[in-house]
Amino acid sequence: MDPKKVDAVVLVGGKGTRLRPLTLSAPKPMLPTAGLAFMTHLLARIAAAGIEHVILGTSYKAAVFEAEFGDGSKLGLQIEYVFEEEALGTGGGIANVAPKLRHDTAIIFNGDVLSGADLGELLNHHASHQADVTLHLVRVSDPRAFGCVPTDGDNRVLAFLEKTQDPPTDQINAGCYVFNREIIDRIPRDREVSVEREVFPTLLSDGLKVCGYVDTSYWRDMGTPEDFVRGSSDLVRGIAPSPALTKPRGEFLVHDGASVAPGALLIGGTVVGRGAEIGPGVRLDGAVIFDGAHIEAGATVERSIIGFGARIGPRALIRDGVIGDGADIGARCELLRGARVWPGVKVPDLGIRYSSDI
Ligand code: GDD
Ligand code: MG
């Protein structure tokens, strides 16, 4: 199938609640990952597949996307934006972009997925199976947080079970679908619709041809702090593919204008943002340090995200935590196991242990 005759639609209207407090200031797809707004990796992949026209379905913090990507020409794309005043859900978001579609086939993406799936192969699979809709499917160890999608021996989708506690298979919706235009026109307009809970089950009960395309390439939903940290580390180390990253990859990535004192240890796919300062004796293991953050002497940051301009005091320990923009963590504090600190909050020195939200 000619990728130039396919529209790409990226759903980016969600609030990114599971990544709060980072998503209080930036929408999830715009959070920095390996030095670039996350969406850049997805858009570069779309461009590399030869697709030219992209529509972003926005709602939460919509203006940030256009400010960053403009008309898309820097990425070799033509990008348009469609805004939902009230978020319309994933299905409503797809229906809402219909007036901007130029072609008979659209490829829809969740905006928070890091994946190496071959988009050309997915499109060809859709065409050769003469499907109405084709879903990219992957296998995961715990399918309960996703849409569970059993298929038969001919790749026909049998059911779509969104976030079920008792999934019949480990095969899940990878958040990328090919839709024939007339199927998009069947989605109810101007009201909230879930593609997962309403559109897919209705298409199946109406007997439409919904196919699955299963592959084993890299795949990760970046929606939780654990996955965000892991996906960022995988990008830095070259485990996750991205056509937007052209330099050789390694154990860490330090951006322009950052300073790292001698004797600091950076491992595990750590990334240090622009203008950040890393003190002597600091240990960063799988750390995501946003621009302008300061990590002071002897502190340790493991598998954690440190927001824009935050400060981590001397000999503090942050493990599996999320520190909001501009927060100030005192000397010797220990923030462990899912601890989250809200933007601008000051945690005093003392070495107190916290493992809940502050
Ligand atoms: N335009 C628009 N409007 N976009 C939305 C809306 C909306 O109302 N609600 C959510 N989105 C966007 C989000 O910004 C995100 O990029 C994408 O839709 C998916 O939303 P998530 O909130 O990340 O969903 P999820 O991760 O819980 O589940 C979805 O993705 C899984 C794979 O990553 C589902 O599609 C699952 O079935 C799937 O397995
Ligand atoms: Mg998600």
Quickly describe the structure:
Belongs to the transferase hexapeptide repeat family. This is NDP-sugar synthase. This protein is α/β, with parallel strands linked by helices.
Care to describe what's here?
It is a single chain. The protein is an alpha/beta fold and 358 residues long. The chain folds into two domains: 3-135 and 173-204, Spore Coat Polysaccharide Biosynthesis Protein SpsA, Chain A (Alpha-Beta Complex), CATH 3.90.550; 251-354, Hexapeptide repeat proteins (UDP N-Acetylglucosamine Acyltransferase, domain 1, 3 Solenoid), CATH 2.160.10. The protein has helices at 38-48, 63-69, 89-96, 119-128, 181-184, 195-205, 225-237; strands spanning 6-11, 32-33, 36-37, 53-58, 78-83, 105-110, 113-115, 133-139, 147-148, 161-162, 171-180, 210-214, 219-221, 252-254, 259-260, 265-267, 270-272, 277-278, 283-285, 288-289, 294-295, 300-302, 305-306, 311-312, 317-319, 322-323, 328-329, 334-335, 340-341, 346-347, 353-354. It has a seven-stranded mixed sheet. Strands 14-17-20-23-26-29 form a six-stranded parallel sheet, covered by helices on one side. It has a six-stranded parallel sheet with strand order 15-18-21-24-27-30, with no helix packed on it. Helix 3 (89-96) crosses helix 6. The model has no long low-confidence stretch (mean pLDDT 95). It binds guanosine-5'-diphosphate-alpha-D-mannose and magnesium ion. Magnesium ion binds next to loops.
Structure keywords:
2 domains; Mannose-1P_guanyltransferase; NDP-sugar synthase; GMPPB_C; 7 helices; alpha/beta; binds guanosine-5'-diphosphate-alpha-D-mannose; UDP N-Acetylglucosamine Acyltransferase, domain 1; binds magnesium ion; NTP_transferase_dom; 358 residues
